[in-house]
Design a protein that fits this description.
It is a single chain. It is built from 18 helices and 22 strands. The protein is of the alpha/beta class. The protein has 2 domains: 234 residues, P-loop containing nucleotide triphosphate hydrolases (Rossmann fold); 233 residues, Rossmann fold, CATH 3.40.50. Helix 4 packs across helix 5. The longest helix has 16 residues.
């Protein structure tokens, strides 16, 4: 096989779910030493195609060839044996274990046939950690690492199996700008070693940094494949959505009203300290800061998800007794988690069940099954959930549609304050624009929105006011004319 011939070819492959043709006779190939980006809106069929390659389905149609030889990839074990590794968007690390144990899970070196050889385990783990630029003790518990470091461990784990093909699904979704740069350096090194990389991302600018070729899918079908040099961002988006997509509103008009909630002296030792602020009705307030600054921890604590050591929440000059998340919901506080699969959704349940699952007993008694179904159908139409099928299991939807179902879940509670923690992570450009429009509509209706996002353009577009968090303290408030640069500088401690 020549250096430029494909290591993997997929020919006229299809994948059906009940009532849906997710992948419809698609062609795709990968070459050694290249990054081949797979692009498309949520629901385009990207994940189904990659899961097919990773051996997750035994009922696909069409042909798959590896190094020119036909192969039935009907299990993950077969895919791994053929040199295919997949790093999922939702990391699969086992948190109670060490870094080394995660890297070699299922393949731990032993001595005397029974006991783990910790010396060999340490040495081998260091080898693969070095490849991903992670200089850390392999016996460190995985739960002590940042999301970026955990992602690097996932890559090290994949490399320990000596893959020929690496599938990366939204690998930068939880990374800062500097961490993204470091990841791209690792990818460049992997390319130079001849690894074939399939790269899925909704962040269009990074595609032009990392990809050699691009394949676009739409509605389960192949649209185009070409070298990255033959695309512009506009051309790429047009191919993804099938039409030119309009620019979103540059800046919301601030229509904030009276103070809705006040937060006084919120403190959780080791996370955040003496946090004081308020939020107004109809306001989009953002808390911005670097990873580890305490952004999510503050919101989780005042909503009742995590404990507070000190401080309280006030409404109409009265302290709210919030001791649990149920208390928070009862007082009109709702929190959309950044981890929809772990904390937000019941993946093996129907979309209707998920969307209505946050309603309390009183609200359920006030409405019939028929009324709740109609309510969901209306929300699904507003949010662009596709397909609109109340009985469809959530795990059969794309990541972007899952995020919309999660948003619908909290919209059904009609909260007075909705906390949105990374609300557009892992969604395509069309879904992102729609979610932005919904956020604006909710604020215009008088709902208070607390926005936590690592997407600086999103923050600048949506927020009326920004609180800058640095090492667990609010260090600055930006009320107007803030930019990505001014937010970044303040978040890094430059308060000039």
């Amino acid at each position: 096989m020549s250096a430029t011939s494909a290591i993997l070819k997929m020919r006229d492959v299809s994948k059906r779910y009940p009532g849906t043709l997710a992948v419809d006779r698609v062609n795709f190939d990968l070459k050694p030493g290249e990054v081949h980006a797979l692009m498309g809106e949520n629901g385009a069929g990207k994940s189904s195609l990659m899961n097919m390659m990773a051996g997750s389905f035994d009922d696909y149609e069409g042909d798959i060839l590896i190094e020119g030889k036909p192969i039935q990839l009907h299990s993950p074990a077969i895919a791994k044996n053929k040199g295919i590794e997949m790093i999922h968007q939702e990391l699969a690390n086992a948190l109670p274990l060490t870094i080394a144990e995660n890297i070699f899970a299922g393949n731990l070196p032993t001595k005397a046939g029974f006991f783990i050889d910790k010396k060999i385990l340490m040495e081998n783990a260091k080898t693969y950690l070095k490849q991903v630029g992670l200089n850390i003790n392999p016996m460190t518990k995985i739960e002590a690492l940042s999301p970026h470091e955990q992602q690097l461990v996932e890559i090290a784990k994949a490399l320990s199996n000596h893959p020929k093909i690496l599938i990366m699904d939204e690998p930068t979704s939880s990374l800062s700008r500097s961490e993204v740069g470091k990841l791209f350096e690792i990818i460049a090194q992997l390319k130079s070693n001849g690894l074939a990389i399939c790269y899925i991302s909704h962040h269009i600018p990074e595609i032009f940094q990392v990809a050699d070729r691009v394949t676009v899918m739409r509605n389960g079908q192949w649209v185009t494949t070409d070298n990255i040099q033959h695309f512009t961002p506009e051309k790429l988006v047009n191919n993804m959505v099938g039409k030119a997509i309009g620019k979103t509103k540059i800046k919301r008009q601030n229509k904030a009203g009276d103070i809705a909630f006040e937060f006084k002296n919120l403190s959780r030792i080791g996370f955040f300290h003496h946090i004081n602020f308020n939020i107004r009705k109809g306001e989009v307030l953002s808390i911005a800061g670097l990873a580890g600054s305490g952004r999510s921890e503050i919101a989780r604590s005042f909503c009742g998800l995590d404990p507070l050591d000190y401080g309280y929440v006030c409404k109409d000059n009265k302290v709210l007794p919030i001791f649990s998340y149920k208390d928070g919901l009862d007082f009109g506080l709702a929190y959309l988690s950044e981890d929809r699969k772990l904390e937000g959704l019941a993946l093996d349940q129907e979309s209707l069940f998920n969307a209505m699952s946050a309603l309390n007993v009183k609200e359920r008694k006030k409405s019939s099954d028929h009324e709740r179904r109609d309510r969901y159908l209306k929300l699904a139409e507003e949010l662009g959930i596709y397909p609109v099928d109340p009985e469809r299991l959530v795990n059969q939807y794309s990541g972007g549609n899952q995020q919309k179902i999660l948003l619908a879940k909290w919209m059904t509670t009609q909260p007075e304050l909705l906390v949105l923690d990374e609300p557009t992570r892992g969604v395509d450009i069309g879904a992102k624009q729609l979610i932005h429009e919904v956020i604006g509509q909710l604020a215009d209706s008088g709902m208070s929105i607390l926005l936590i996002t690592s997407d600086l353009p999103e923050l600048v577009e949506l927020a009326d006011r920004v609180l800058i968090l640095h090492k667990g303290h609010i260090v600055k408030e930006l009320c107007s004319d803030f930019t990505e640069d001014s937010i970044l500088l303040a978040a890094n401690g430059d308060l000039s």
